[in-house]
Amino acid sequence: MRRRDALRSLGALVAAAGLTKVSATELKAVPHETGLNPEMLPVPVMAGGQDKVFTGTTRATLSAIYDRLIPHDELGPSATEAGCMDFIESQMAGPYGDSKDVYLEQPLQDDESELMALAIDLRNRRDYYLAGLAFVEEQAKQRHGASFADLDGEQMDRLLNDLEVGRLEWEGKGSGSRFFEMLLQNVREGYFADPLYGGNRDMVGWKLVGFPGARYDYRPYIHRNGQNLGLEPISLIPVS
After folding, report:
1. CA nearest to 185, candidates 101, 122, 129, 120
2. How far apart, in whole angstroms, are the C-alpha atoms of residue 91 and residue 227?
């Protein structure tokens, strides 16, 4: 998969956002006691500094998948070079990986069990990811007698394409394509999220699409829709 294919829908969203008219009201008389408390400042994800959710073969498989979805090319670094593994490690080790935002209990009423089974998965995202990656690794060994990370690019792409279009249904109809979409969503998030979260190292994703970052005030530029502002991206990472 070419980088422009993986990022095409995101580019459309950025273009649409450039057409949006912005209006804002200035907030005045903010109480002084609401000033920033150093203890409340966000803590950036440090490269290699988070709990390891993906290790050994599982880590190699995910790294290889990410770098097929967003490869190193003339446009910029690959997903792993941009820190996407640090991003997903941090996410999966925390509330996102625990699926704290999702109902994961058993159905409460027997007569609704069939309907509820379609709506919930009694695993968190971390376990879902690990199970899906194990399936991809299994398929690689069945097809080629080698781990996914050791396949050549064409072999990887054929396997991932089969996963994307639903020819590899590891947990029933639609399961393969759903897992592929989650992988693609997460690698995009890692490539374009604020570097605070571990990915988008050196703001390579923002530079690729011309996003100026987390600047305090864009009012001087509101009238310049669709123009290259020539602004260096700024991260949310606190600067002392």
Report:
1. 129
2. 34
Inter-CA distances, 32 with 35, 49, 101, 216, Å: 6, 35, 33, 19
Cβ count near 78 (within 10 Å): 20
C-alpha angle 18-6-102 in degrees, rounded to nearest 5: 85
Q: Say how far apart CA 62 and CA 145 lie, in whole Å.
A: 18
Listed by start position, the domains of the chain span 3-11+43-210
Computed over every residue of the chain, the mean pLDDT equals: 82
Please, what is the angle between helix 56-69 and helix 153-165, to 10°? 80
Model pTM score: 0.77
What's the rounded Cα separation, in Å, for the pair 105 and 103?
6
Phi, psi values for residue 106, rounded to 5°? -70, 155
Concatenated DSSP letters for 78-104? -TTTTTHHHHHHHHHTSTTTTTTTS--
